[in-house]
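Please fill in the sequence for the structure shown.

STRUCTURE ENCODING:
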C-alpha cells in the first residue's frame, strides 16, 4: 500500500517543516515587512506559494512513485562479440546477479537493504521520503531539491529583509529580536544545506551518474590512473543528452515533476559506446 509509506516520522517532519516555513514567511515576516494587503505583498505571496507548491508536489511524487523494480524473468544481455572468453562472461553474469533476490539485475540496478529488493538505476535510499530514489522518481527528487532550495532562499531573503528594515530602536523587545535572529540563522542553514545538495545533484545529473556510481567510479578512476589510462563514466553521453534522458525531451516539461512519460523501462541505458 503506497499510503503506508506516508506513516513515517521523517515524512511528517518534512511536511511540518514546509508548513512552518510557509506560514512564517507569509503570515509573519512578509506581512510585517510590506503587508499582505499591498500589491508588493500580494505579488510575493503568489510567487512564494508557487515555489512552495512545486516543492510539495515534487515531494509527493517522490514518496508515491515506485523508483522501479526489476521485471520478473529478466535475464542480462551478455555481450558475445567483444572477444571475451567464457569465464569472463560468466563472472560478468554473476556481478549482475542479486543473491538476496535470487534474480538477475539490469545494469545500474542495485539491491536496497531497506526496501529489500533491487531498484532500477538506484541512486540512494532516502529516509526523508521513506522511499528509494531511482529510475522513475529521480527527476522528481531533483526537482524537489531545486524547488526546495529556491523556496528556502526566497524565505531567507524575506526574513533577513524584514529584519533589516525593522526599527529596532523603538518598540521591539528582546524576545522579538531573538525570534528574528533564530529564524534567520535556521533558514540560512536550511538554504545552505539544500544548496549544497543541489550543487551535488547538478553535477551528477549533467554527468548522468548516480550517487552509487560516483563512489564506484572513484575506485575505477584510481585503477585507470594506475595503469596510465583515463576513466570515463560509461553513461555520460554529453550534458544535453544526459539532461533530456532524465528530465525529458521537451525543455518546457523539465521543471514539471509529473512529466515522466519519457522514461524507458530502465533495464538498459545508452552508453558512450552506443553513440560512437
Ligand atoms: Zn536484490
Ligand atoms: Zn530503498
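FILLED IN BY: designer on duty
SEQUENCE:
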Amino acid at each position: 500500500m503506497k499510503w503506508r509509506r506516508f506513516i513515517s516520522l521523517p515524512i511528517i517532519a518534512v511536511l511540518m517543516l514546509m508548513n512552518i516555513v510557509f506560514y512564517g514567511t507569509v503570515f509573519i515576516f512578509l506581512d510585517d515587512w510590506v503587508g499582505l494587503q499591498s500589491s508588493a505583498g500580494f505579488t510575493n505571496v503568489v510567487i512564494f506559494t508557487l515555489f512552495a507548491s512545486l516543492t510539495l508536489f515534487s515531494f509527493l511524487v517522490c514518496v508515491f512513485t515506485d523508483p522501479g523494480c526489476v521485471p520478473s524473468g529478466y535475464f542480462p544481455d551478455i555481450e558475445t562479440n567483444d572477444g571475451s572468453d567464457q569465464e569472463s562472461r560468466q563472472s560478468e553474469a554473476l556481478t549482475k546477479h542479486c543473491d538476496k533476490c535470487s534474480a538477475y539485475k539490469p545494469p545500474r540496478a542495485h539491491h536496497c537493504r531497506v526496501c529489500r529488493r533491487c531498484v532500477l538505476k538506484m541512486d540512494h535510499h532516502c529516509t526523508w521520503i521513506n522511499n528509494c530514489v531511482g529510475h522513475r522518481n529521480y527527476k522528481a527528487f531533483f526537482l524537489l531539491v531545486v524547488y526546495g532550495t529556491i523556496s528556502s532562499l526566497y524565505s531567507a531573503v524575506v526574513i533577513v529583509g524584514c529584519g533589516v528594515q525593522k526599527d529596532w530602536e523603538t518598540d521591539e523587545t528582546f524576545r522579538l529580536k531573538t525570534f528574528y535572529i533564530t529564524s534567520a540563522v535556521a533558514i540560512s542553514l536550511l538554504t545552505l544545506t539544500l544548496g549544497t545538495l543541489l550543487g551535488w545533484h547538478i553535477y551528477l545529473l549533467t554527468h548522468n551518474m548516480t550517487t552509487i556510481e560516483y563512489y564506484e567510479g572513484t575506485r575505477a578512476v584510481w585503477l585507470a590512473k594506475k595503469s596510465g589510462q583515463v576513466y570515463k563514466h560509461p553513461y555520460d553521453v554529453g550534458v544535453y543528452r544526459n539532461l533530456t534522458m532524465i528530465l525529458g525531451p521537451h525543455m518546457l516539461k523539465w521543471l514539471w515533476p509529473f512529466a515522466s512519460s519519457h522514461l524507458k523501462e530502465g533495464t538498459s541505458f545508452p552508453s558512450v559506446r552506443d553513440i560512437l
